[in-house]
Every structure is written in structure tokens, then in C-alpha cells.
Amino acid sequence: MSNYHIKHLEEYFQVYRKSVRNPEAFWEEIAEEHFLWRKKWDNVLSWDFSKPEVKWFENAKLNITENCIDRHLTTRGEKTAILFEPNNPNEEAQHISYYELHKRVCKMANVLKENGVKKGDRVCIYLPMIPELAVSLLACARIGAIHSVVFAGFSSNALATRINDSDCKLVITSDGSFRGKKSIDLKGIVDVALNDCPGVKTVLVAKRTNAEITMVEGRDKWLQPLLDEAYGDCVAEIMDAEDPLFILYTSGSTGTPKGMVHTTGGYMVYTAYTFKNIFQYKENDIYWCTADIGWITGHSYIVYGPLANGATTVMFEGVPSYPDFGRFWEVVEKHKVTQFYTAPTAIRALAKENMDFVENHDLSSLKVLGSVGEPINEEAWHWYNNNVGKNNSPVVDTWWQTETGGIMISPIPYVTPTTPTYATLPFIGIQPALMDENGQEVKGNQVEGRLCIKYPWPSIARTIWGNHERYRDTYFSAYKDKYFTGDGALRDGVGYYRITGRVDDVIIVSGHNLGTAPIEDTINEHPAVAESAIVGFPHDVKGNALYGYVILKEFGETRDRDNLRNEINQQITEHIGPIAKLDKIQFVTGLPKTRSGKIMRRILRKIASNDTGNLGDISTLLNPEIVKEIMDNSL
Ligand code: WT7
Question: Which InterPro entries does UniProt cross-reference here (predicted)?
């Protein structure tokens, strides 16, 4: 028997040992016993991190939607697959059964086909958290099209960049979206983006807000009438295990966003297996992840992982603060949610509000509390554990990345004893390593280093779309034959991992991964700006907030500073999205630079964090005198 469901600590250690002693045999057994393959693999794994190349389940054939939907129809046809909770609490929730999901996905798949989408084509999905979003992902997978979901909070500029990078020929969007009290003109954003996207031939528009929008003739089509007419069954395209399933963009520390490519077989196996264990999912549980499907968390742990296990997965359209700060807990009570998975930034925001918002709701259905996206600080961990979990639902702090596809380091609830702020132990099959500055692995416990992974796991991203060299340079060149995560970590006396944060120029704001370079590039486009540098500084709700140091051109010096600040943030909102806005902008006459011209962000970070006691050696700077000026005028 395979070890699909781990139930106690001894078993974890035993299965872990097995999974690292012979990973191929281990994953073969899991894959064989728990999934539907049209043809089995010739070889479980071949890999070479120097190229890098990783292939799992070579030459196996499958369709992931048959695993996520069809195979449940005989046993769970009437069971709710997706439980949709609308933004407005007075609008009725929708219970979409597996049977209904099958029909909706097939219809959508047929609409895509009728609009010329073929296997291997890229489809951009820019939708709010409504059922059509999940259905669109699955419809693409049904016919072998590669979906590229762009979070519907991104600006038209960011959307256009992503559409063009992967040559999407069709976009699925909606007339608008609801977020709390606001409604947002999504279609308008798409229209602006498409001015720069000549490759897009068709836009399918779902109706959500009934806002008045313009439909471009010959390009834009209302989705619903097409779905109404479409046939309710669609033969699943037979895919190779290594065929791309989707592209999802993540920011890098430099350059354009990276289109991480995930493939089919390994991704399915790993997301399903982690979901089962890390949420201790049992039949009849009601699982809720509050992320947006526009992020990897939503792909893996709202859509694919839960559905592959035949689970009921909640999709929430709204925000934690609407109609009031009790909304999360109201929804938990209403749907008797058993597993709840959210981000530290949401926990910190809710912890600031009146305790009545939590206490007025019956949260006794909860069994597991998940956290993801950034390090969870001690205070937030305890608040979550005490007030939401009533010391009765383990907090699972799950560390992973867009690139890893699935959770990598995490406690298994009711199995791994938890320690606040620790992601604890590597999941089954994951072989972490901590590296020192000399590129040597730091062995033993009570040590710190840069976090790498030594051996492939099934859901590792295979490449960056259109740029394999960048993939190699970013993840496989820092340490020989290892995947470098970009994070620092420590391993305590019992071997538990604690993630200490990014060691590169990526800043995590409210759990969102933001690269400094694209933001700086945007600021530098302002006509009055000569140069800029962005750093993160601690923020009690967002985890990190952005602090910008801006050098003005000579004529800019005469401009009103607050107006300039607003214009810079406006420009960031337009080019990237509101999540990348700066909390503080300090105008400076220079930036601390090394003799080779590299900005010393370390120093700026310390100043921004009011941690100027030990700035380190600044005498080697090209312009050491600038440090005092920046400190004296620090905001
Ligand atoms: C980066 C990846 C994986 C889904 C959401 C983010 C940080 C993520 C944790 C955690 C400490 C965490 C890391 C990582 N991060 N989870 N539990 N503890 N840090 O995906 O946007 O690709 O960001 O988020 O720095 O490298 P992402």
C-alpha cells in the first residue's frame, strides 16, 4: 500500500525516509495508485539540474480534468465541488456539484474550440473570483490549451506585457468585478491593454456587474450565449505528462516578469498529495483557501489539488473587510468550513479589529488553519492560534513558491508538533539544503543559510516561458546542482526550518512578490525623476511596505513634493497595479553606490527600517557622504 495519507509522526519519518532514499519508487507508487492515467510512463524521472532539465512520468498520458472531475462523477457526482460565496453576503451562495462542474467545463471547452483555440495555444484569463474563473482554467486543461491567469488587480500595462510575452490569442474576462463596496471596470482595463496586443483575436466576456461596457466588433463576444448553445460534453484531450498545463507570471528581481511553466503529470500528483496531507482532508470536509486564483496558491490549492481529491473547495469573491471585518468568520460559520488557508497579512489586519468580529461567530467546525505567502510573525501566529483556532486547530505555516508548484516545507496537522513562526519540516520527497557564502552546504542543526533544494520534486517549474537561459541563471547558477529559492532560512536544534525572508531584491508586500527593478523602472519613467531605488521596511499589517528613494532631475527640484509623490504612485498603479504603490517616498540628491556603481540597498534598507546603529563599513562607497544626508531626512 502506498502512503497517501500520513496520520502520525512515526509514519511521517518513515515515509519521508522512503521518499528520499528512492524518490522514483516512492512517487511511482503514489502516481500509480491514486490517479487516472491513459497510459503509464516509461520512466519515472530523468533530471539534470545543470541544464536544467526535469522530466517526471515520461511518456505517460493523461488529462488532469479527468482526474479532477470525471473520475469523481460515479461516486461524488452530486457532491459540491465548488462552493461559490459572492462578494455581497445577501447574494445566494452557489453549490456547483461535480456533475454540474463537468458540464460547465465541457461547455466552456467547446466554446474555446469554436473560437479557434487548439492544443498548445495560450489563453489569457483575466477574471475576478467568480466560478467562470475556475471553469476557464479547467476548460483550457480539457482541450490542452495552456492557461495564463493574470490576477485581476494588475493594471492594463502589466496585463499587456503578460499577454504578449506568451502570445495569447484569446482573453477571457468579465464586464467588471465586485470588491467590497467597489466595482471595477475590468473590461476597460482589457481594452486598454489590447491596444498593445495585436495577437489577441478574441475576447470572451462574462457578465458579472452588468456595467455598461464597449464591445469591439469582431473581437469581443459575450460568453453566456455561447455557453448556452455549447454542447455539454467534451472529450478530454490526451496530454503528455510533460505537456505544459499553465504559465503563471511572478516578478523577478530584475527585468520582465517570469512566466513560470508548469507541466501536467507531476504537478497533478504533487498538488493532490500535498493537499491531502497538509490539510488532512477528509471526505465531507469544507475546505476554504482565501487566495485569489490569480496566484499560484489559488491554482494549486483552490483548483487542482482539492478537485483531484474530490473535495469541496470554497471560492470567495469578496474581501475580508466587507461588509465588516467579521466576513471571514461569518463565511466559516455559514458553510461550516473545516480547513481555512489564508495569508499573514490578512491575519494581522483582522487582529487589529474588535475581537467581537471573531467572537460573534461559531468557528467550531475548523480543524486546520493554514498560512502562506510570507513569514508569519509570532504575534500573528498566536492570535490565529488562540482566537480563530481556540488552541484546538493546528496552524500550518506552509512555505513554498510559484516556482515550486506545491507546498515544500510545512507541518502536517495532527502529525507534526508546531512551533510558532516555524514552517517546521520538509514535506515528503523534499530535500532542503542550507548553503553558506562559499557555496558549501551547512550540515547539522542550529545553523543558518540560503535555502536550496537538492533533488527534483514532481511539481517543480520546468522553465521560464521563452527564456530557458534566464531560468537556469535565476535558479540553478548560484549553487551547483541545486535549485536556489532566493530565501534565507535557519534550521533549529530539532531540524525545524524557519524561513527568514528573501535574500535577493524581491520584496514580499502583503504576501505579494514584488521585484524592485520593475518598480524602479516605472518610477524612472516619470519626467522629473533621474534615478530611484526601492527597499522594503517592516509594516505591521503588510509585513513589508515599500520605501522609495528618488533623485529628481534639475527641473523637478522646483515641483511640489506631495504632487510628485502622488504622480509617482499613480504611475505605479497604472503600470503595475496598486499593490506596488510606495508607502514612503524620500527625495534625495544621491544614492549610496559601490565603486562599480551598484546601489547599496543594504544601507537603504537599514535607514528605511530605522535600524541605523550598525550600517557596516561605508568607507568603500563611491559617495559615503550621501549616507548622512539620507539619514538626516529619513521619513
Ligand atoms: C515567496 C514566494 C507560495 C504561495 C504564495 C507566494 C515567501 C511564501 C512563506 C512562508 C515565509 C514565505 C518566500 C517565497 N513565502 N510562503 N510560509 N514563510 N516566507 O508565492 O509569490 O511565488 O512568493 O514568498 O519568500 O520565496 P510567491
Answer: Ac_CoA_lig, ACAS_N, AMP-bd_C, AMP-bd_C_sf, AMP-binding_CS, AMP-dep_synth/lig_dom, ANL_N_sf
